[in-house]
């Protein structure tokens, strides 16, 4: 009797541990390296993808950037480590790594882009305004702002996606690379 | 004490096996893999425009809202598939993904130097047959050696300004993916 109880408990523990650890590893993208508040999602290809990435893509159906195509950075917190909130304004400033094109977009908790009257859910390197030195500043806020404005969801946690296309970083990270700083402004 | 420890070690070993089997098994049992997601929106053997990323729009997860996309599912069962498309000025990228959604092959506007896209996707056997006697019409066509027999193509173009939307739409509409020779 004692043996059966122990066997049952062991199987239960094994199942719970195995499944929960598998879920944990598959649920979120594996993070390659971080630059400031930004975390790089390693590019994947059919030949080099690890089993966790394969499982995640098969489960979510999401389209991933290919290894030669570019690199995606995700930010869920500002430079001081506070989680990004729809209730706050954020200022993105500074430089970007070398890439032929980059796009910045924002999604809410459910991964949906915000409904915006501007009908715009992304900013690209081709359209932003820069100062004489080539530097730029982007405001992420719910209501319209002068200059470079990216509309954000009115409330709840949010995520910023910074996609670099055709960049040498896709193949090897550069330790000196610069990503825009994320500074929190006023909160409602 | 020793007995409990032995059971615990056993539980950990078993948990490791459960972990590995689960992770490796997910792609075979997934119900929302990219192949099915693409099939739900886009047709087989024909490029279908994907809705722009917008609140509540049914489109593929993970797409860049700054791009417009068109997708096509293909199968190599009836022979190689030829993918052709006009290109737009500015950034575009064509990527080929396997049955599990993994990126296999791609080309962008810099690599193609603004020439129209013209590629032939063929399985290992079909590539071997093509090597033996390559029809003249395929001389300037890029041949992609495809793992497996199914996949999908995703063609995306950056939309920079309203004034250039028509040009981008025309390029997306020109995309074809059909069995070679037809």
What does this molecule look like?
The complex is a heterodimer of chains A (188) and B (182). By secondary structure, chain A is of the alpha+beta class. Chain A folds into 2 domains: 1-30; 31-187, Jelly Rolls. Chain A contains 2 helices and 10 strands. Chain A has a 6-stranded antiparallel β-sheet with strand order 1-2-3-9-5-6, with no helix packed on it. The mean pLDDT of chain A is 87. Chain B is an alpha+beta fold and 182 residues long. In chain B, the strands form 2 sheets. Chain B has a 5-stranded antiparallel β-sheet, with helices on both faces. In chain B, strands 7-6-3-9 form a 4-stranded mixed β-sheet. Chain B has helices at 2-29, 34-41, 109-112, 124-132, 165-173, and strands at residues 48-49, 67-75, 81-85, 92-98, 103-108, 117-123, 142-146, 150-158, 176-179. Chain B has 2 domains: 1-30; 34-179, Sandwich (Immunoglobulin-like), CATH 2.60.40.1610.
SSE layout and pairings?
The complex is a heterodimer of chains A (188) and B (182).
Chain A: H1 2-27, E1 34-35, E2 38-41, H2 51-60, E3 70-75, E4 88-94, E5 101-108, E6 122-124, E7 136-141, E8 148-151, E9 158-165, E10 181-187
Helix pairs in contact in A: 1-2
Chain B: H1 2-29, H2 34-41, E1 48-49, E2 67-75, E3 81-85, E4 92-98, E5 103-108, H3 109-112, E6 117-123, H4 124-132, E7 142-146, E8 150-158, H5 165-173, E9 176-179
Parallel strand pairs in B: 6-7
Antiparallel strand pairs in B: 1-2, 2-8, 3-6, 3-9, 4-5, 4-8
